[in-house]
Write the structure tokens for this entry.
Amino acid sequence: MSRGRRWLGDHLILAIGLLVLVYMFTPVFVVMLMSFNDPASRNSYSFDGFTLDNWRNICGPFQMCESLTTSLQIGLLATVSATLLGTLMAFAMVRHRFRGRSAANLFVFLPMATPEIVMGSSLLALFVNAGVAGILGFWTIFIAHVLFCLSFVVVTVKARLAGLDPRLEEAAMDLYADLWQTFWRVSFPLVFPGILAAALLSFSLSFDDFIITNLNAGQEVTFPMFVWGAAQRGIPPQINVIGTIMFLVAMGVVLAGELGSRRRRA
Amino acid sequence: MSAAGNLPVGLVDAPTARSQGGRRGLAGYLLLLPGALWLLLFFVVPTVTLVATSLYDPSGSLQTGYAMTGHWQNYVDSIRDYLPQIVRSLLYALTATVVCIILGYPLAYAIAFKAGRWKNLMLVAVIAPFFTSFLVRTLSWQYLLGDNEVLVSVLRALHVLGPDGHLLATPFAVVTGLSYNFLPFMVLPLYASLEKVDPRLIEAGADLYAAPFTAFRKITLPLSMPGLVAGTLLTFIPAAGDYINSELLGNPQTRMIGNEIQDLFGAGDYPTAAALSVSLMAAIVLLVFFYVRRAGTEELV
């Protein structure tokens, strides 16, 4: 009896956990299903018939692929910049002592604790007050994206770095490696998984962002903004093709990273 | 450790771990400088500008320019006009956060203690739905909750919903969307702090005749508080400011404060929009302050 109850206790929570995962994936399955949808009308969002047309003609909807290109460009640029700036900050905050470190910690945390609508309004207020409202567009979106990715990069890389023994680096220095060599040969490879995770996170945050982008985009249209506009008019099934592709590519990157780290460990 | 395994940790982890060591000198400042400048220029300065904008004379416009008159009345007016939306936003966000705890805690617990070698895979699975775009995912809830789809039909057949009851375009749909979209932000920090709980503590509790639930309440739950607090903040804050779910899944009666701020900016009423933004932020800061004090965690940042 008691053994039965313990088995149930052990597996019940796992079962609930798996159910929650199924729930989390349900909309993803819907996205995949809808990528094969042959919609009967523009107004209803239901599965009306199977077709491969959406996959054959991904760029069919007017200006969707242009918006996608914009999003990819901003995503890549913002990811590279935020990852670079954030990694430097994380190194400073974990490996260096300086005045105001706890203030710096708070400072990095604050953007994560600010709702997007507030952050977006602030930036817009800045751009408008600075008299540059006319240049709202690609670069203002870029500035905003680097901003909100930065904190997540710092936090992610910091976590990885804090888990590493600083004596490894000291040992390298004792063996006459200079700072540069120590960094590239010891610190960087060890922190790399954290940096990769941060970069992936940044890209998906940037690619996904709507609220801040929408306020600061001017005439530029990113993919989420395209979807937003489409949602008011009738949703082209191709957005689900893009959703599916994004999902598969990201899973591919994650799994490749996983395999890579398995191999390194082996 | 894998890329996926790294994601959750930082939100509760990290801060002061080996902070005793570390080099002194200029290098630290130099490394910090570019990022700090970015934060200063594009976070601190804009926040000040936003507060300034909220005090402009509302009779100005974008074309004619605004006069800075320290017009406090903006706050009184905007809060009076939009109080229902502010309250609604906080209520929806609170409900969504509670739903996230109910769904997220068992999942985080299962990953931390029961997943065994599937741990990494399950973590990846938590993050994976992230990768289909936020808006596309939210739109797929339009389908799932739609009037002609399975869920509504089943609920109608079970008489949970009336014969012409709806799910879509109701507060229920908005809260469902909010809690769905921010669930990973609850699960990951919870997992990060649950993972650090030493299972031997729970065994010790059991040895001392604590029933499983008592052991959970006295040992696991208190030790997971930092994760729970971080998760609550990371769910509640973005949910309170969100307007995507309300717009795509709700109706005109479910409008949240984010909808209003966005529309006011769109209409060019900057002082009111800014005053609402600042009020939302102030409300959140106050709530967070009292919550964190009550929850008694200071290791958050």
In short: Chain B touches chain A through 107 residues (CB under 8 Å). Residues 1-20 of chain B have pLDDT under 50 and may be disordered.
